[in-house]
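Query form — protein Tetratricopeptide repeat protein 9A

QUESTION: What is the three-dimensional structure of this chain?
INPUT:
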Amino acid sequence: MERKGSAAKGNPSPPAAGEAQRSQPPLCVPGGGGGTPARGQGGTAAEPAEFIRRAHEFKSQGAQCYKDKKFREAIGKYHRALLELKGLLPASGERERDSRAAFPAGAPNPGSLSEEQSKTVEAIEIDCYNSLAACLLQAELVNYERVKEYCLKVLKKEGENFKALYRSGVAFYHLGDYDKALYYLKEARTRQPTDTNVIRYIQLTEMKLSRCSQREKEAM
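ANSWER: The structure tokens for Tetratricopeptide repeat protein 9A are given below.
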């Protein structure tokens, strides 16, 4: 049996610390939380701190929706949080681009972020992608390709993230890529050796690989 709080389909673990804001979370109101990114007086672009504040607010709303089992609304809130952060940090592989390259309208130059702000932005991104994967795993028909995509985004930023490693393994398992599934599941096990869900999926994956190997031998 899967342990309560599992990240697997049907009973994913709730967002980890940082994913859900427990202190006075905003109400889950469809379409709530504001429209376009905030702008200062006179139409000037908002400061990085304002984008970060709004992203944090949307993430908190998403966490409340998740808690209320309003998963589709939660997904929308997490996407809005990520949208607020778009342009605050240069994307992977773009750090060498010409600093004169254009940024999204209203977004400040990434170079204007302090070290603390950069860490905050990255932490919010990690929480949002992990939470998006958790929401998708609650669907009746799970989009494992999208779950994989979100988990790999987390792992690019935080390679030892247990939830992302485990969910990546689950996604690859259901996508039929058992070698990669076993890799990520074993990586997850090194972080939490006694997690029963990780152990279970490792056993399932090894059984699949054994059957595939047996069929290959019989076909020769």
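ADDITIONAL NOTE: The chain has a mean pLDDT of 80.
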